[in-house]
Amino acid sequence: MLGTRDTDAAKAFIKDLAGRLTHRVQLTTDGHKPYLEAVENAFGGEIDYAMLIKLYGESSPKSPERKYSPSKFVRAKSHKITGQPDAESVSTSYVERQNLTMRMSMRRFTRLTNGFSKKVENLAYAVALHFMYYNFGRIHKTLRVTPAMEAGIADHVWSLEEIAALVDAHGSN
Question: Shortest CA distance to 3 belongs to which of 25, 27, 32, 44?
């Protein structure tokens, strides 16, 4: 989903997520406050939900050459919000890795560059193409197949030609 980091976007995202699930799950979010209300609205108490809040700090003032460097990680605090989340499984690592993969794979998400999308529609197309290729056209080292094949929804690695043909088959709306 593309959107802002506000309450309405969080509600839409979590509502969509809840509608795709068929059984109780454990969910971990970062400390972004709009998720609290969004998760409560979408799941009620039918979820094991925790928040992982990462704390950052500076050991010394940043020099000019470190102006854009990230702050030093200090520690993480986890908070049980709803249900019985397994403390050992409270983590945002998977989504953070996915975000890094997306930033590294699409220039539009590279920080501090001029490779941004001028139209939100073009950004949406780029994200859709990235995830289509990531899930259907790229063999993952740990799986040794594509995620779609591992999930049983594809029986082969899709070629770029097959992915591009989807645009022709469904129009360019």
Answer: 32
Are the C-beta atoms of residues 41 and 7 closer than 8 Å to each other? no
**Which among 32, 21, 24, 20 has a CA at the least distance from the CA of 95?**
32
How far apart, in whole angstroms, are the C-alpha atoms of residue 127 and residue 129? 5
- CA gap 80, 60 in Å, rounded: 33
Region class of 27: left (phi > 0), else alpha (psi between -120 and 50), else beta: beta
Q: Where are the domains of the chain?
A: 7-91, 113-170
Tens digit of each residue's pLDDT, the chain (173 residues)? 899 999 999 999 999 999 999 999 999 999 999 999 999 999 999 999 999 999 988 756 666 766 677 788 899 999 999 999 999 999 999 999 999 999 888 888 877 777 777 888 989 999 999 999 999 999 999 999 999 999 999 999 999 999 999 987 776 55
Strand partners, 48: 26
